[in-house]
């Protein structure tokens, strides 16, 4: 395309330092930026999964960035391929100075997909494109976020009565909480998370993905783990972004429910986040009508419908990566019965293709 916009830029691989610095500066300055727009996230995903990141950009006549769209080229023999913005994220998408720039980025994304013979582009946030090939997807996911309260007692009062009673019982138990991102915390978190998703019938992401994200975000990410008699029973990896804590990958063992370890985990994370200076808690997204959706409502979070966008090449159908799909019902049931060692060996080979 002609100036003032240059919608196609290769990804960070081999990009000059000036481009990397411009990317960082643009994300840092834009009020709507998320951690999933950051170079740190995009590089971590590529490093852990091998999915190349392409950065679609728009620039003004002086060459300054006016918009970006990071896209991971996700390939899978099971699920097909797509350009995903951003890979393994729950947000991201087009980040632009105005709607006209957003339209340029959307066109650039579609042209990039066509040039790579990729049948679809999936955007999980940001401006919603319009025009040929673009479709909106709504009614599937909802997001949950609210402000943190001033202290523990106020936080308890913000939780509906029934769930508040469960949290108080958890606080009165013999559970302990640790935080950090050292080798022990990473090992325990992955064991718990892998067990949790296996029990749900879904393949686990590669451990390298968690390590890469923790390494990329440094002090802006950590793990909080709940322990019973010293044994880790529930754990969550969280990101910290502009005063918001984002519990991103969390889970618990089978005994966590009886111990109310998950209740303690999220309440302790609220406390931990306040101590770090956070003022908002983003509980992430959940599929409408699922157990996690109801669980977050029980905590007093109001669901906010999420609308995503997808571009499809002519004659193409969208990828189906939903584990609740009837297409995967048999596989999910079988996966729940796999020994953990087998699920952890096979799962990452499958899950890296979900993106």
TrEMBL record:
InterPro entries, sorted: Acyl_CoA_acyltransferase, BioF2-like_GNAT_dom, PEP-CTERM_FemAB-rel, PG_Glycine_Bridge_Synth
Residue ranges constituting the BioF2-like acetyltransferase domain according to the UniProt record: 164-297
Stated name of the protein: FemAB
Organism of derivation: Sphingopyxis macrogoltabida
Record lineage: Bacteria, Pseudomonadati, Pseudomonadota, Alphaproteobacteria, Sphingomonadales
């Amino acid at each position: 395309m002609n100036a003032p916009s240059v919608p196609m830029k290769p990804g960070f691989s081999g990009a000059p330092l000036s481009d990397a610095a411009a990317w960082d500066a643009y994300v840092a300055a834009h009020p709507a930026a998320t951690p999933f727009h950051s170079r740190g996230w995009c590089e971590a995903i590529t490093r852990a999964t091998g999915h190349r990141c392409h950065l679609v950009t728009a620039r003004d006549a002086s060459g300054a960035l006016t918009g970006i769209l990071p896209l991971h080229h996700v390939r899978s023999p099971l699920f097909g391929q797509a350009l995903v913005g951003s890979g393994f994220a729950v947000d991201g998408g087009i980040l632009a100075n105005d709607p006209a720039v957003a339209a340029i980025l959307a066109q650039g994304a579609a042209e990039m997909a066509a040039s790579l013979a990729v049948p679809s582009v999936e955007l999980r946030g940001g401006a919603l494109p319009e025009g040929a090939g673009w479709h909106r997807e709504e009614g599937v996911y909802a997001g949950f976020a609210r402000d943190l309260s001033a202290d523990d007692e106020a936080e308890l009062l913000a939780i509906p009565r029934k769930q508040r009673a469960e949290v108080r019982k958890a606080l009165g138990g013999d559970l302990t909480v640790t935080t950090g991102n050292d080798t022990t915390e990473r090992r325990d978190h992955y064991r718990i998370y892998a067990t949790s998703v296996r029990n749900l019938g879904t393949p686990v992401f590669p451990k390298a993905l968690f390590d890469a994200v923790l390494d990329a975000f440094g002090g802006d990410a950590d793990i909080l783990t709940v322990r019973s008699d010293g044994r880790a029973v529930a754990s969550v990896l969280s990101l910290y972004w502009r005063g918001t804590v984002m519990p991103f990958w969390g889970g618990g063992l089978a005994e966590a429910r009886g111990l109310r370890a998950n209740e303690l985990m999220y309440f302790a994370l609220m406390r931990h986040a306040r101590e770090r200076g956070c003022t908002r808690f983003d509980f992430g997204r959940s599929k409408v009508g699922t157990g996690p959706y109801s669980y977050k409502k029980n905590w007093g979070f109001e669901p906010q419908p999420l609308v995503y966008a997808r571009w499809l090449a002519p004659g193409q159908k969208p990828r189906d990566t939903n584990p609740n799909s009837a297409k995967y019902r048999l596989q999910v049931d079988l996966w729940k019965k796999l020994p953990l060692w087998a699920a952890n060996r096979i799962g990452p080979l499958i899950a890296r293709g979900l993106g």
